[in-house]
């Protein structure tokens, strides 16, 4: 049985008349890396805020660790970064982390370990103000890891970073996940979710459009692009085929046919020819994750 870390049940948040999160349900199982993927303003931060008890829920509920403890205790097992990192500029990274330990009443014994995880051990004595944006973000991750959380929650972890900084953060997140920490991150970047996450919840305007494995999101049967000399009878012929989900006209004589099961271009060509349709163009393609994401969010 997978161990459930967090379950959202019809979670809803309204700000006045506008609904930021609407009837959102999904579960987070131990050991996976989840991405909440959606465009700006789709309700990702609001969702994280609710489960972290910093935003009041309008309706619905959430349950940490299968309701085995109250939210206050549960959140002690959660590491989260939902705002931009805030540390004392004149203090070293290490001293900043020591202070976090004092405030949160956690043992200082983990400091070296977390600095190593985020690759800041050699810069631990430097003042925070000398850090690059990427290093600041890595220190924030280190800080969130101090209490050995069961789950690490990150809101747009690579926002504002340069390509090298983005790569470093992504590698560190993968390393943390590899060591067994469950991860939940919010991102508007499809490639980020594709690169880091095992599972994805796609949301738009606060509503869930898809939840499942990232690799299964990519498992569509693809589509065939075909042209025939005379379109007229061809579309009514397509209408009768059970392996076709739908089709659309992309150019005057070119049709894009979405498949609902595995069907090869060769088989399709043969069938068309037998029915008297000579194809002048035929190609089978698979939709990229990006195309599917755009289709979902459009
Ligand atoms: N305190 C608030 N008062 C009123 N409206 C709010 C408040 N916080 C968020 N919203 C609205 O709720 C919706 C969802 O915002 P949210 O920040 O959760 O989205 P997001 O997906 O995290 O986007 P972004 O990546 O831009 O932060 C938006 O329309 C936003 O304007």
UniProtKB/TrEMBL annotation:
Listed InterPro entries: AAA+_ATPase, ABC_transporter-like_ATP-bd, ABC_transporter-like_CS, P-loop_NTPase
Q: Does the keyword Ribonucleoprotein apply?
A: no
**Has the keyword Acyltransferase been applied to this entry?**
no
Annotated ABC transporter domain residues: 6-230
Q: Which domain of life is it from?
A: Bacteria
- What does the record give under GO molecular function? ATP binding; ATP hydrolysis activity
Stored SUPFAM superfamilies: P-loop containing nucleoside triphosphate hydrolases
- Print the keywords alphabetically: ATP-binding, Nucleotide-binding, Transport
Kindly give the PROSITE patterns that the UniProt entry links to this protein.
ABC_TRANSPORTER_1, ABC_TRANSPORTER_2
Q: What family does this chain come from, according to its entry?
A: Belongs to the ABC transporter superfamily.
Name listed for the protein in its UniProt record: ATP-binding cassette domain-containing protein
Species of the source: Mesohalobacter halotolerans
What lineage is on file? Bacteria, Pseudomonadati, Bacteroidota, Flavobacteriia, Flavobacteriales
């Amino acid at each position: 049985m997978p161990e459930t870390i967090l379950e959202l049940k019809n979670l809803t948040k309204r700000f006045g008349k506008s609904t930021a999160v609407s009837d959102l349900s999904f579960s987070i199982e131990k050991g996976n890396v989840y991405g909440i993927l959606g465009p700006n303003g789709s309700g990702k931060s609001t969702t994280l805020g609710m489960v972290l008890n910093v935003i009041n829920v309008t309706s619905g509920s959430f349950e940490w660790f299968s309701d085995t403890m109250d939210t206050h205790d549960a959140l002690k097992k959660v590491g989260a970064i939902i705002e931009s990192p805030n540390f004392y500029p004149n203090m070293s990274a290490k001293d900043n982390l020591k202070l976090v330990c004092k405030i949160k009443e956690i043992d200082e014994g983990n400091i070296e370990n977390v600095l190593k995880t985020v690759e800041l051990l050699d810069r631990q004595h430097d003042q925070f103000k000398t850090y690059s944006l990427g290093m600041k973000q890595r220190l924030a991750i280190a800080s969130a890891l101090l209490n050995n959380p069961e789950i690490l929650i990150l809101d747009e972890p690579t926002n504002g970073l340069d390509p090298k900084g983005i790569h470093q953060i992504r590698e560190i997140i993968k390393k943390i996940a590899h060591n067994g920490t469950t991860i939940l991150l919010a991102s508007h970047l499809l490639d980020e979710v594709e690169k880091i996450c095992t599972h994805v919840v796609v949301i738009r305007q606060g509503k869930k459009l898809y939840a499942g494995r990232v690799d299964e999101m990519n498992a569509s049967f693809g589509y065939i692009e075909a042209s025939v000399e005379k379109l007229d009878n061809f579309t009514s012929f397509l209408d009768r085929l059970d392996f076709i989900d739908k089709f659309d006209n992309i150019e005057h004589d070119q049709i894009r046919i979405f498949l609902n099961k595995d069907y090869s271009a060769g088989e399709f060509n043969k069938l068309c020819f037998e029915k008297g349709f000579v194809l002048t163009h035929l190609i089978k393609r698979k939709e990229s994750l990006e195309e599917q994401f755009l289709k979902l969010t459009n």
